[in-house]
UniProtKB/TrEMBL annotation:
GO terms for molecular function: ABC-type transporter activity. The keyword Glycosyltransferase does not apply. The lineage of its organism: Bacteria, Pseudomonadati, Bacteroidota, Flavobacteriia, Flavobacteriales. GO terms for cellular component: plasma membrane. This is ABC transporter permease. Pfam families: ABC2_membrane_2. Keywords: Membrane, Transmembrane, Transmembrane helix. It comes from Oceanihabitans sediminis.
Amino acid sequence: MLRLLQLELQKLLLNRVSKILIFVSFILPFTVLILSSIKINFFGFFTLELGELGIFNFPIIWHITTFFASQFKFFFAIVVVSMIGNEYSNKTIKQNLIDGLSKKEFILSKFYTIVFFSLVATLLIALASFVIGMYYSSYNEAQIIFRETNFLLAYFVKLVGFFTLCLFFGMLVKRSAFALAFLFILYILEWIALGLMTWKSDFELAEKIQNFFPLKSMYKLIDQPFQRVMMTKFPDKAELAYDYAVHWYEIAIVLGWTTLFLFLSYRILKNRDL
């Protein structure tokens, strides 16, 4: 595993564009640190400081930071599809196989890289969340601090699942731009399917079925936290209540898609004439 990971990291770090995109994908989530210190002056009447609103208290901070950081996954997605596109355009995939790398090892080297960068991204956002929380939170009990760290697991699974989907599209079309276009097409198709199911049945049932779709299931791992923040400010508003927790079956669905996309990527390479 380490040999395959080292081989892939050497390719990425020798590519200037990949290095920039990797750097950006790691740095942008840290803008949550800047967000926590923003002060908004309303025409001199009063100053609103986001960090003082309680949104960076434990345990809610794990929810907010992972949701915010996951919005920047597109940058590393470009790296993933570029990994495949460059292999085909530079003919290095054929050379690697000639040099003794099996097709299975080739796919695994890409997947190990995805897992590695997803793990690093998760550790970085965990560190940032902990630092911000310790500074702003009014709670210092370990039980409260680490209560909802399962959002970190959801964040990691979400990244691995999404990047493995990008790997599959990269293997399918062999071109970075087309692979990214397929992501957008899949997103549109999922919402078209929701519309058709709603037309044939009720919306609640259609939405439950949509939660099994690839992109929607990944999104559902970390639901939007804005409604939860409103709940803390207006606890008497029962209509604001919703299920924002991380559930084991949601993780299982994404892991199932991840396994399928990894298998399909291998099958495509195995059956393709290089």
